[in-house]
Amino acid sequence: MSYVEMPGAxxxxxxxxxxATVEEGALQQLRNVATLPWIKGLAVMPDVHYGKGATVGxxxxxxxxxxxxxxxxxxxxxxxxxxxSLTANDxxxxxxxxxxxxxxxxxxxxxxxxxxxxPSRLHRFATGGWDDFWSRFDRVADAVKFRRSRAALxxxxxxxxxxxxxxxxxxxGAVWLMLHSGSRNIGKELAEHHxxxxxxxxxxxxxxxxxxxxxxxxxxxxxxxxxxxxxxxEYAKYNRAIMMALxxxxxxxxxxxxxxxxxxxxxxxxxxxxxxxxxGMDLLVTRKGAIRAGSGEFGIIPGSxxxxxxxxxxLGNAASFNSASxxxxxxxxxxxxxxxxSTRDLEEQTRGVECRKDSGVVDEIPGAYKPIEQVIExxxxxxxxxxxxxxxxxVKG
Length: 397
Known about the structure:
about 25% helix, 8-stranded mixed β-sheet, alpha+beta, 10 helices, single chain
């Protein structure tokens, strides 16, 4: 489908979904964002739903300003996936051992490594820039400096919530590895620090929503946020890269006889800021629950833990600021899901998937999410599907 345009105070709101299907709270957030003096465009993805300040599933293009709450607290959160030389026939009938090995290699939930992961010891891991990256930690906000050790031990860990690591099979029987995670606790603390700073600035006192507080160009506060934001986005990129290397090691050892090989890893942020140019303007584009989908660029759009995911290629649609959805998108809150569904429902909806089926992950049940097929159908002018994957193992924290 092409987008539906709704009127907004400063810019039109371009929606790649039927506005009638979007909850009023999310619609109001979109209207609020469209009132910001610095905004130059607002694109809404088909997985849109209510968030903090700004909706999840929105692309906010501003000139000379950025809203830290719109980026969110999991700075740089995103996806990585890699196709392997294995096929479905190579997998054992009982996948519990493989799931256990993955969980042993990649700490989940609040877990962390007992000692820092040395990337130089990981098979084919590119360590370029690693030392420079950590040296720049000395320049992040003083408020988080004491977290250096924890940040290092959490590098290469999954986290909880909707983060996951999966073994999937595509429609041709090829096995893929996929994972979803971000900047862990250090990204969260950096985000919360800067959101607090922004909300106290004089130019933000008259905003319709205090969660839309922005930093503006050529100020020390903006410079500090940009520094920390881009560092946290890099942390998230390295975090996924190390996890994927650990994941590959597990698979390589478990299927030693098969001599597994891997294609290049596909990776994309979906909570981040990028400097991009549109209509002759240099803009700061915030994708909150959206991926970049420039022409020919690969992306990953996951569904829920029982429905599968899509590898896509961007079509470069400038109307969406070269963007697409980041997933299926929630259709109910975590609390609502816990009230509505039981562990029996979870078992039914994840049948055939080796995964947790206890009360701790009921809020991640497929029924709490929008149908991924519908979400894909609503953005055929943004991406083309390269592969459809179905998970057989799903590891969650």
